[in-house]
Design goal:
single chain; alpha/beta; Rossmann fold; seven-stranded parallel beta sheet; globular; binds NADPH dihydro-nicotinamide-adenine-dinucleotide phosphate
Length: 296
Amino acid sequence: KVLAMGAVGAVLTAFLWTDKFDSGSLKGARVLVTGASTGIGEQMAYHYARFGAQIVITARREHVLQQATEKCASLGAQMVLYIAADMAHPSDPHRVVKFAVDKLGRNKLMELLSLAFVFAGGLDYLVLNHIGSSPFAIWDGDVEHTRWLMQVNFLSYLQMTAAALPSLEHSRGSAIVVSSLLGKMSSPFAGPYAATKFALSGFFGSLRHELSMRNSNVTISMCFLGLIDTQSAMEKIRGYTNMTAHPASEAALHIIKAGATQQWETFYPWTLYPLISTRDMIPFVWDFIIWNIYRY
Ligand code: NDP
């Protein structure tokens, strides 16, 4: 009964917001996507490009960003720029947001006419998606790795949000936070990663309340994903589980729609919703399932 109710709730929720999505609303939208050189972030950049958005993409590897930028331009992006940055470096999150806010929303003609100061840049969507690499394995006691991962997967998200909030407030924009089922529910072999994703849930859940209590214009959208078929994820889980992975391009579109329709929480695939909702009601059932999903 509980599972059926959860499933009905998820289907209704999905139906209600999917219907509201208008791709035209993203034409000319100013978007910063992190972790956009590969995987889901790269797919998000391509979708935003098809919708005619203005995009800044970022990750560490410049040559891969350059290729993604060229593809975005060919797909129809109104403007596309990249900036290489390492989110483990404490000053890079701020530097990236400043770059995006300065550059997006301007065009060459205005700059040539020295009118750029009139049409100062801005940001409509801050899409926080990057993650540092972390082993999928039994925890080996390495606390330093978790400290580093906290900076990349968690603290840099806070730094970028702090830097972007004034622009998002001005544009009535959104911060879209890409998280995981492991940010709601623990599973083996991913302790440090799950810790960073749980931290995101705690922090952005709290921030969302504060923003709405002071009638802020900014929306926070938390996106919880199941297993997605990106190269890095597939390599990590090989030999551990036969779980079905879902297409990165579809996950990317789901995230974009959730952001554009200002959903504060969304799940892809939708089956995560009944799973998470029933986790605390029947924990022993889910523990049993988890222990049987993974090989050890
Ligand atoms: P990928 O590993 O494919 O991509 C990670 C991105 O982050 C790359 O663009 C990478 O580029 C960048 N990156 C890595 N380290 C840094 C760093 N130190 N500084 C800046 N950028 C960095 O990840 P996915 O596409 O699989 O995942 C994307 C999001 O989706 C993540 O938030 C993840 O937690 C979430 N998710 C994914 C799932 C999956 O099964 N794939 C499941 C649940 C959630 P570069 O190496 O060039 O820096």
